[in-house]
């Protein structure tokens, strides 16, 4: 079965000869792949159980290094006379280990951080940034935020306060006067053009943040009046998020340059142009504009930006500015994956055809007869007939004509017939409408994870991540399944999958073998998923492990964070675990007093309650 790994894998994922999914080190080409099932087995031996958020250090390093090198190469090739100073938006992945690693690896490239809130600024100021690295302060800011940003300049930080409104400038002006210190300022300019894709609303002149043309002129006049125009060093124009089409990148970058050259003409000493986010990830491998795919590489993106900015500045007779981007998704999305095991399955097929009975209604005998005329040319007809007879039999049951046992035989016959139709349809070379219809009757594989905690964007905005079994890929999968999570919620499922031939509503999977693990991996979940997860059904954070490849087909554990215990999750929602234990103990002691529970049973009950409080929120 071709799961499309070569298309969406970005050279990081492969299938090993034994059928296991392996990970490739992008920083050490030619080194042997490291098997994911082997990694999980080793972690389990250490006491780290699934579900696991697995972060790969070289994947994280690779995203940042590739982006910086692509800009450097583009600038060298085109003769661009400025520099690139990227920043990582902390909101994309706020985990301490991720931000610290980005700061460390980014030192060589002058890579900085973007802070959209006071807590994020606190984080940024605690990182080992290079002297030339920027800290870009976006978002709504109060006196405290602005005061800290201005004061940080005394420590050598290149902290730029990006003005989002006219009122915000007045706060900056007042605080800077109080501190008798001039700030580094930027201004967020709304572009008039929008880009396509899932986050279209984040672009254009109806976006939430920034100043329109009229407000921009007012701001410049006010800055001139107050003597702060010389502090305006950066223009921020957000192109959009996960921009799918490279032509949109060129078009919006060109408009940003037009604003830049006009602001320079009006006296603003701008020398940085921040084009915000926009650099997308191809999650599906389709390589075309779409909500989960893009039609360009990072190298083409960088070339488009550098060429557009360089030409615009040359035409205006201006020096080439420092280019800044906030490409958080590209830097971290590929860095991690979620691995979980399948606990059980609800199967919707029947291997053996039920025997006919003398008192069977003709609808049931007609349903049984569908198989007799089934072939490749009549598969669609057979499907329609089977659904019709099944629906008529259900109507008879509702009217009391069929009893429960008879209806059970009817449903088994229908499922058997569907399985036979599916076999015929899957043997065809090309997909069809019937194959799509049959995916409404697939199995459910019940899996040990919470969609709402670990993959919130899959539920909330239909984000696509590559999902595949991690073993037995040298065997032909015999089933199609939707992956249901462990929560008590009908929305807790993954039912959109990318395969080599496009999108499907079911994942090809293998029959479960008793006593053997069946692992599923969801790839490229490093952007936003850890940050946005919630506590649906009080399932907490999964175990997080960062590994590094050893170059010989093995790995080392670089960092581990234990997933939430039940006691920890209860405390998040205002329960005191000790109060819960005390209330339970009181109930048990009352039962002992009534002689409903023995002393030994009391010990077992209290022990079980305590063990559960200390345990993992997921299936153990």
Structure, described:
There is one protein chain. This protein has 620 residues and is α/β, with parallel strands linked by helices. Helix 6 crosses helix 7, helix 13 runs antiparallel to helix 14 and helix 20 packs antiparallel against helix 21. Strands 4, 13, 14, 15, 16, 17, 20, 21, 22 and 23 form a ten-stranded mixed sheet that branches. The longest helix is centred in the C-terminal third of the chain and has 23 residues. The protein has four domains: 177 residues, Lyase, Ornithine Decarboxylase, Chain A, domain 1, CATH 2.40.37; 280 residues, TIM Barrel, CATH 3.20.20.10; 74 residues, Up-down Bundle (Methane Monooxygenase Hydroxylase, Chain G, domain 1), CATH 1.20.58; 48 residues. It is globular.
Short description:
Helices cover 40% and strands 16% of the residues.
């Amino acid at each position: 079965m071709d799961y499309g790994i070569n298309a969406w894998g970005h050279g990081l994922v492969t299938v090993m000869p034994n059928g296991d999914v392996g990970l490739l080190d992008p920083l050490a080409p030619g080194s042997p792949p490291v098997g994911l099932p082997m990694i999980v087995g080793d972690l389990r031996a250490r006491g780290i159980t699934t579900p696991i958020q697995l972060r790969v250090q070289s994947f994280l390093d690779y995203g940042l290094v590739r982006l910086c090198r692509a800009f450097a190469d583009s600038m060298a090739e085109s003769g661009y006379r400025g520099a690139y100073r990227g920043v990582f938006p902390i909101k994309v992945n706020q985990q301490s280990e991720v931000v610290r690693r980005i700061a460390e690896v980014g030192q060589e490239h002058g890579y900085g951080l973007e802070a959209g809130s006071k807590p994020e600024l606190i984080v940024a100021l605690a990182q080992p940034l290079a002297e030339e690295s920027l800290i870009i302060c976006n978002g709504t800011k109060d006196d405290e935020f602005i005061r800290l940003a201005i004061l940080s300049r005394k420590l050598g930080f290149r902290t730029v306060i990006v003005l989002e409104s006219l009122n915000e400038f007045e706060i900056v002006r007042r605080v800077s006067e109080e501190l008798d210190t001039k700030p580094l300022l930027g201004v967020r300019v709304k572009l008039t053009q929008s880009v396509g894709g899932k986050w279209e609303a984040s672009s254009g002149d109806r976006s939430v943040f920034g100043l329109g043309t009229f407000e921009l002129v007012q701001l410049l006049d006010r800055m001139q009046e107050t003597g702060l125009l010389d502090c305006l060093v950066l223009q921020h124009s957000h192109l959009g998020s996960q921009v799918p089409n490279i032509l949109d990148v060129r078009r919006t970058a060109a408009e940003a340059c037009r604003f830049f050259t006009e602001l320079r003409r009006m006296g603003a000493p701008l020398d940085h142009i921040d084009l915000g986010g926009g650099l997308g990830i191809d999650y599906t491998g389709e390589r075309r504009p779409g909500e989960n795919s893009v039609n360009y590489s990072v190298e083409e993106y960088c070339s488009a930006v550098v060429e557009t900015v360089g030409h615009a500045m040359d035409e205006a007779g201006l020096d080439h500015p420092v280019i800044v981007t906030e490409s958080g998704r590209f830097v971290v999305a590929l860095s991690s994956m979620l691995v979980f095991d399948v606990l059980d399955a609800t199967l919707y097929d029947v291997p053996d055809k039920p025997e006919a009975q003398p008192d069977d209604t003709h609808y049931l005998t007609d349903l049984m007869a569908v198989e007799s005329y089934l072939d490749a040319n009549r598969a669609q007809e057979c499907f329609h007939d089977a659904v019709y007879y099944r629906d008529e039999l259900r109507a008879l049951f509702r009217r009391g004509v069929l009893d429960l046992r008879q209806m059970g035989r009817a449903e088994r016959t229908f499922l058997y017939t569907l399985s036979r139709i599916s076999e015929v349809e899957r043997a065809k070379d090309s997909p069809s409408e019937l194959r799509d219809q049959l995916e409404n009757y697939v199995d459910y594989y019940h899996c040990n994870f919470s969609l709402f905690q670990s993959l919130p964007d899959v539920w909330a905005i239909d984000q696509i991540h590559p999902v595949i079994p991690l073993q037995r890929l040298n065997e032909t999968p015999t089933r199609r399944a939707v992956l249901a999570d462990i929560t008590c919620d009908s929305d807790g499922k993954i039912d959109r999958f990318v395969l080599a031939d496009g999108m499907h509503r079911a994942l090809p999977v293998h029959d479960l073998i008793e006593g053997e693990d069946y692992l599923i991996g969801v790839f490229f979940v490093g952007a936003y998923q850890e940050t946005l997860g919630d506590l649906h059904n009080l399932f907490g954070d999964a175990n997080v492990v960062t590994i590094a490849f050893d170059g010989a087909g093995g790995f080392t554990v670089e960092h581990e964070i234990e997933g939430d215990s039940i006691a920890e999750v209860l405390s998040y929602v205002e329960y005191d675990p000790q109060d819960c234990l005390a209330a339970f103990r009181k109930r048990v002691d009352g039962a002992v007093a009534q002689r409903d529970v023995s002393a030994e049973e009391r010990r077992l009950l209290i022990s079980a309650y305590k063990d559960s409080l200390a345990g993992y929120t997921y299936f153990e």
